[in-house]
Amino acid sequence: MPRYRIDVEYDGTPYAGWQRQAGQHSVQAAIEQAIRAFCGEAVTIRGAGRTDAGVHATGQVAHLDLARDWPAERVMGALNAHLTAAGERVSVVAASAVAADFDARFSATARHYLYRIVNRRAPLALEKNRAWLVTQRLDATAMHEAAQALVGRHDFTTFRSVQCQAKEPVKTLDRLDVSRDGDLIEIRASARSFLHNQVRSMVGTLRKAGDGSWSVADVGAALAAADRAACGPVAPPDGLYLMRVDYGAPDRPNSS
Known about the structure:
The chain is an alpha+beta fold. It has two domains: 3-98, 2-Layer Sandwich (Alpha-Beta Plaits), CATH 3.30.70; 109-247, 2-Layer Sandwich (Alpha-Beta Plaits), CATH 3.30.70.
């Protein structure tokens, strides 16, 4: 049975997240409906990351198995035609035939996320639902310094949703960089895998370092507490993007 990898981008605003959920519209369900419309098969696809409601992606990866050996270009074109016809905000940007043991989730060696903050007093027009508007002036340098306390292998219980289904809270965070360009603050995070809500929880905590209410030591203490109650407010989903998923040897973090 042929297996295909598809690279997917989507606007997460109208979806209940990546994962199919009863009674709610998800990105996974939208693609599976497009597959059924294309070839009549009821297929379950597996994604590299289960993004939450409102979270976007430019580089989500999924795999699917089809009964017929279609050209990958035909799969991509057909899925996009049906997604467009259904009014979905989802696009398959690449498709390829892969080995039967390729798994979009478990074969991944790194995931790269971007969080965007627009730091200004004026409300968002073009960036609405695409970034987190923070009107209080933030010190991106202080945020970056505080972020380095979280890099490395740690127990991230503080930054883990109570609904997280991971077996353990210990993860290795390879990169957490903060930079500013005008009103835009970008936070880039890279790791093999993340806990549920980990990136948004870290961003919300870094915001407190940026507005001066927390010091670098406070961020380190929150991590060391291994207590969800020690976390800052969780950042909204609007500014979060799954940018890329690596397979094989991980790329250097600064290449994302």
